[in-house]
Amino acid sequence: MQTTIEQAARLFLEQDNILVITGAGISADSGLPTYRGVGGLYNTGQTEEGYAIEDILSIDMFERRPELTWKYLLELEKSSRGRRPNAAHETLAYLEKKKKRLWVLTQNVDGFHHMAGSEKLVEIHGNLHRLSCTVCEHEEERDDYIGLELPPACPQCAGLIRPQVTLFGEALPYEATRVYEREMNRGFDCVVVIGTSAVFPYIYGPVVEAARHGIPTLEINPDRTELSKIVRHFLPGRAAESMLAIRRIVDEANS
Questions:
Q1: Domain range spanning residue 105?
Q2: Which one of 29, 78, 221, 230 has the largest count of C-beta atoms within 10 Å of its C-beta?
Q3: Annotated binding site for Zn(2+), which residues?
Q4: Which residues form the active site (predicted)?
């Protein structure tokens, strides 16, 4: 059974400890292509060099041919250049300030949740706009990669610079994992999934666990996914319009 906006908004009104899990779909309304599927950057699965995109964006390729990995990291950055957080990102940041505890766990590396003002945020795959040296402790933040010579060299030691994102074949970042595990152990009253098919176990795991213990779960997506069979509530729709409508109802109820 499909869920209405009013039912979805009731979860945000009634629950105090909320986990929101987001994927590429939440940034689609900012004009970003999703990683796969309709409008995806790499629908064919093959790059012009003949490699799968997962191989190009792997730690093994980065160590062997950093210029090739950086070529496609640049393409990812270009796809978000000049874009801004949309109403879904902004609503989550707004609701965080209204709720006792609202955490966002995102797979996205575009940095939009941070830009929108979310503070209780786990960027489990990192952030394209944070760069660090692979040799020394140099770090920097960049709005974009304009003027960046690829592959970039560290201004301090001339070592290889990389973005602080998780490449294929690489362990998840320690600090993000530590926060993730800490908050999962604390538990949540409600788990909401927005714009992701949740193929990674650390993404779908909280949804499965919540459903198993009778904790309310909500998915917001234009189309059904494998998670739709698990969640209690499924709200068909795009992220921005759905979250904006939810915000209106929450504000009316609290006015």
A1: 5-32+85-125+171-254
A2: 221
A3: 133, 136, 154, 157
A4: 125
User: Are both 195 and 211 inside the same structural domain?
Assistant: yes
Cα dihedral 245→248→254→255 (10° resolution) = -160
Total-model pTM: 0.92
| Total of domains in the chain | 2
- Each residue's pLDDT tens digit, 171-211: 999 999 999 999 999 999 999 999 998 788 889 999 999 99
| Known binding positions | 133, 136, 154, 157
Whether the bond into 33 is cis, omega within 30 of 0: no
The tens digit of pLDDT for each residue in 47-56 reads: 888 898 889 9
